[in-house]
Amino acid sequence: MFEEKNSCGNDENLDQDEVEKKYLHDYFETLEGTLGIRDDTNEKINDVDDWDFAPIVIDSLETCYHVLDMLDTPLYVLKYKEPLKKQFLEVIIWFFNQIGQPDGKKYPPMFSNGVEVELFDLHLFVKAAGGYENLDNNKWDEIGSHLGISGPYGVYLKPIYVGYLELLLFFYNRSVSMDEKLLQRLESAVTRLESLSGGFQPHSVAPDAASEPSIGAFDDLIAEYVGKVSTAAEKIGGQVKDVTNLLKEAFLVQKELILKTKQTQKPDAEGMVEFLRPLNEKLTEATCMTTGRRSDFPNHLKSTAESLIALAWIAYTGRDCGMSMPIGHVEECWQSAEFYNNKVLVEYKNKDSNHVEWAKALKELYVPGLRDYVKSHHPLGPVWSATGVIISASSKSYKPGAPAAPNPPPASLPSSASSSSGSKQGMAAVFQEINSKPVTAGLRKVTNDMKTKNRTDRAGLVSFGGKEISKSVPSVAKVGPPKFELVTGRKWIVEYQIGKKDLSIDECDPRQTVYIFGCKDSILQIKGKVNNITVDKCTKMGVVFTDVVAAFEIVNCSSIEVQCQGAAPTISIDNTAGCQLYLSKDSLESSITTSKATEVNVMVPSQDPNADLEEHALPHQYIHAYQDNHFVTTPVSHSGGESAPKTNLDMESKTRSLTVNNAHNTNSDTETKTNCLATNNAHSRMESKTTIYAQKTDSRITNCLTTDLRLYYMAAVLCVFFAMVVASMLSS
């Protein structure tokens, strides 16, 4: 419970619900992951009676960060507020001692009226408001009243906050570590002491890490829970025994890594990869057992391989490391493995009790076994040593920090006379050596033909009347290593697959997503329902999927073919050139969204079951006309007119209907057919047929006109002939 001090010095207990609602609502954003509370499980961990408070020795910024991280768990703060206050004050005192602040600072600070300022509560209230920059004088007075400060002293809380807390939180929020600078200062001091004392080798006085409670608890975890799994595997034998032995080896490697965290400094990203290499090798071996030749126990192998990823909790380095906190990470990994573990229980429920015993023991190993261990000893990740060895990414061994450069040898102090004479003799010897040899002894004579102006191999200016030929350097796209894997049981990664026509995801569930990146000339088939599918930067890629819960997305692609065999609520096409989309009857109600997409054709089933698929082109050019105080947008037609936004009429039926309607008009046949040619069409296929129809019409009109002219010409010739005959008869 939070306790507040009033101006009279009395303690006032507040109701827990009131505290959480009034003061902690904005500060504690979420409990998910930290407490292991999940919406998709019936079991909620709201009881904190089994949580223990282990005091932390404040000797580095990393330990300071661990104390500040504890304040992100509200129930933990409510239960252990008083010891956390003490730890928080120790953090502030240690920090100011390290940055060289004077020892005259008072902890906690006091006002002139004798009221102490609880820095712990001040930190919580200011963080709940989003930082001291967001607080005005009224807010400071309000915080002062909550802290039991009456009168006009609330405005003085801001300089107290800045003077005591802001610098520490600056380092914490940006994860800035001063350990390296402190170590450099320490090493320089040790070097000076060595030079004064004649040199000595300091010995490590670190406590025995194997005797720590966390190591003993992990030994108990292996003996109790891993032992149960091994006992059940001995009864089954075969590959189940082999993969269980690999599981035991992985837990032993985890123990060695926990021991090394007590003796090494916190590594960087490359150093962390080297640190986790032994564990990663075991995880890779377990994954390899699930592939290759067919196994009689595929679910045993997959559940073990998926569950071993939980051991990666030791890689947690902070809120920005990209993974859940250790407790949440263990639970998430087991949820992925439980899918296969449940298959083992169902398959052997009435067949073999040894397999059921093995599956139950495997679950107990992680939940509650490993989860409770992490909760008790490493809820915020491993605690690294501030003065341990440094993990080198370039080597496979652990190396201490680079030693200081050796001191220069003591210089002799000769007398001034000898020094002067010695220097003269030395310079005289140098000049004597130079003068003893000809200066140009080692030089070659330069003849006239060797001079630049007389060289005949130089090419003059060459005139070239043609076009300048420039070599185009093709841009080579960066291609990474191909990947086809399931990450943390939730996300399928398919990357850089080139020329693979038989890619397939056979086992998937609606909670998983599929991300396809950088693939070319390949085909991927997804058998089953997934949550979301994304195709990014792929060329000539084919994707066949059954059902998708959320959406199917195509981004930055070219020449993509997608076939939906089931249902897809949303299909998004963005910045794509060339997309052929095949829809099934169940996916005709899908919402298709396009942006910067060209050459998008959609194939849909015909109403006639014996007919082929009907192709519809989605427009990508539009006309925006300002009419009646707003813009009217319509697709652009290639024939020059405006096409309707939505039309599903076939060209032939549309042409027939236009012909029937125009037959009732009083206009001439030529005008009617001309109107048909000007009719708006939605698709390029329709426009081409209209063009052919117009060409045939023009040819028929031309034929008719030619026939009439011939008749008129023949009639005129006959008239002239008869006139000549009549004239000759009359003259005779």
From TrEMBL:
<dbReference type="InterPro" id="IPR017901">
    <property type="entry name" value="C-CAP_CF_C-like"/>
</dbReference>
<dbReference type="GO" id="GO:0019933">
    <property type="term" value="P:cAMP-mediated signaling"/>
</dbReference>
<dbReference type="InterPro" id="IPR016098">
    <property type="entry name" value="CAP/MinC_C"/>
</dbReference>
<dbReference type="InterPro" id="IPR036223">
    <property type="entry name" value="CAP_C_sf"/>
</dbReference>
<dbReference type="GO" id="GO:0007015">
    <property type="term" value="P:actin filament organization"/>
</dbReference>
<feature type="compositionally biased region" description="Pro residues">
    <location>
        <begin position="403"/>
        <end position="412"/>
    </location>
</feature>
<feature type="region of interest" description="Disordered">
    <location>
        <begin position="398"/>
        <end position="424"/>
    </location>
</feature>
<protein>
    <recommendedName>
        <fullName>Adenylyl cyclase-associated protein</fullName>
    </recommendedName>
</protein>
<dbReference type="Pfam" id="PF21938">
    <property type="entry name" value="CAP_N"/>
</dbReference>
<dbReference type="InterPro" id="IPR036431">
    <property type="entry name" value="ARID_dom_sf"/>
</dbReference>
<keyword id="KW-1133">Transmembrane helix</keyword>
<dbReference type="Pfam" id="PF08603">
    <property type="entry name" value="CAP_C"/>
</dbReference>
<keyword id="KW-0472">Membrane</keyword>
<keyword id="KW-0812">Transmembrane</keyword>
<dbReference type="InterPro" id="IPR006599">
    <property type="entry name" value="CARP_motif"/>
</dbReference>
<dbReference type="InterPro" id="IPR013912">
    <property type="entry name" value="Adenylate_cyclase-assoc_CAP_C"/>
</dbReference>
<dbReference type="GO" id="GO:0005737">
    <property type="term" value="C:cytoplasm"/>
</dbReference>
<dbReference type="Pfam" id="PF01213">
    <property type="entry name" value="CAP_N-CM"/>
</dbReference>
<dbReference type="InterPro" id="IPR001606">
    <property type="entry name" value="ARID_dom"/>
</dbReference>
<feature type="domain" description="C-CAP/cofactor C-like">
    <location>
        <begin position="481"/>
        <end position="618"/>
    </location>
</feature>
<feature type="transmembrane region" description="Helical">
    <location>
        <begin position="711"/>
        <end position="730"/>
    </location>
</feature>
<dbReference type="GO" id="GO:0008179">
    <property type="term" value="F:adenylate cyclase binding"/>
</dbReference>
<comment type="similarity">
    <text>Belongs to the CAP family.</text>
</comment>
<dbReference type="GO" id="GO:0003779">
    <property type="term" value="F:actin binding"/>
</dbReference>
<dbReference type="InterPro" id="IPR001837">
    <property type="entry name" value="Adenylate_cyclase-assoc_CAP"/>
</dbReference>
<feature type="compositionally biased region" description="Low complexity">
    <location>
        <begin position="413"/>
        <end position="424"/>
    </location>
</feature>
<dbReference type="InterPro" id="IPR013992">
    <property type="entry name" value="Adenylate_cyclase-assoc_CAP_N"/>
</dbReference>
<dbReference type="InterPro" id="IPR018106">
    <property type="entry name" value="CAP_CS_N"/>
</dbReference>
<dbReference type="InterPro" id="IPR036222">
    <property type="entry name" value="CAP_N_sf"/>
</dbReference>
<feature type="domain" description="ARID">
    <location>
        <begin position="82"/>
        <end position="173"/>
    </location>
</feature>
<dbReference type="InterPro" id="IPR053950">
    <property type="entry name" value="CAP_N"/>
</dbReference>
<dbReference type="GO" id="GO:0003677">
    <property type="term" value="F:DNA binding"/>
</dbReference>
<dbReference type="Pfam" id="PF01388">
    <property type="entry name" value="ARID"/>
</dbReference>
